[in-house]
Amino acid sequence: xxxxxxxxxxxxxxxxxxxxxxxxxxxxxxxxxxxxxxxxxxxxxxxxxxxxxxxxxxxxxxxxxxxxxxxxxxxxxxxxxxxxxxxxxxxxxxxxxxxxxxxxxxxxxxxxxxxxxxxxxxxxxxxxxxxxxxxxxxxxxxxxxxxxxxxxxxxxxxxxxxxxxxxxxxxxxxxxxxxxxxxxxxxxxxxxxxxxxxxxxxxxxxxxxxxxxxxxxxxxxxxxxxxxxxxxxxxxxxxxxxxxxxxxxxxxxxxxxxxxxxxxxxxxxxxxxxxxxxxxxxxxxxxxxxxxxxxxxxxxxxxxxxxxxxxxxxxxxxxxxxxxxxxxxxx
Length: 331
Description:
Layout: H1 2-20, E1 44-46, E2 58-63, E3 70-78, E4 86-97, H2 105-110, H3 142-145, H4 154-173, H5 183-196, H6 199-212, E5 230-238, E6 244-248, E7 254-255, H7 256-259, E8 264-265, E9 280-289, E10 300-310, E11 317-330
Parallel strand pairs: 2-11
Antiparallel strand pairs: 1-3, 3-9, 4-8, 4-10, 5-6, 5-7, 5-9, 10-11
Helix pairs in contact: 4-5, 4-6, 5-6
């Protein structure tokens, strides 16, 4: 009699716990706040990870002046024991990082009002050290140096180096230009090359400075935020049936800035309505870096992505977050 009474109490207790939603059938079961009780499992894998612990979009060598698409395929998969789910995503924490910059000799020649620390009348000899063989250039001012042209003599080679050297110096001195070299680096390297009186050494340094001086000029760009020029479009593909649905068409030109914080439904009533278990879906993210010719070597934008899967609004959900995604402009 006592044993039957204890058994009855245990059954009543278990039943009460189940009704209250405090004892799940399985470890992944969640109670729906909108109903008396619901049970199920919701497991979203992103790139075969759950939990997701790595970036899903990393592009490190986007070229300067091209608007062609760069693609990343993101694999979405509801596990075999999971329920079907509606899925959405959002991009957030968009952060721009400036890269190296450099304005050309032509820019500095035409914009003397932009000069910082140095004057157009400063002489070459007051800034750089010239050996006796090159002393004829010492009295020329910095503005004149920006007009130097080359030739075959050692003096001519020094001229083409000094043309780039003056631009490099002005770049390094400007507070709004992130130049690869400091003022002292520029001066020391130029002094060393000129002192060598070696044409190859002089020309090699000229070529390096020429590259740095054409990295992009912040003094004439309309925006320094790369995120304003990165266009995203999305397409979801069912790898089993081949069904495809365009979510963000490229013709809409949605930039990272425009979609930041906005929830984008990957499953829709007029497309792929839900992600079914055991089927792999590919989210094709196309990145179009448009109008970035004025951006700078090494400029980048970082962002986080959140994927949100929900079981038909019943309260079961799985949230996967991808941190540290990045797109970097490179020459």
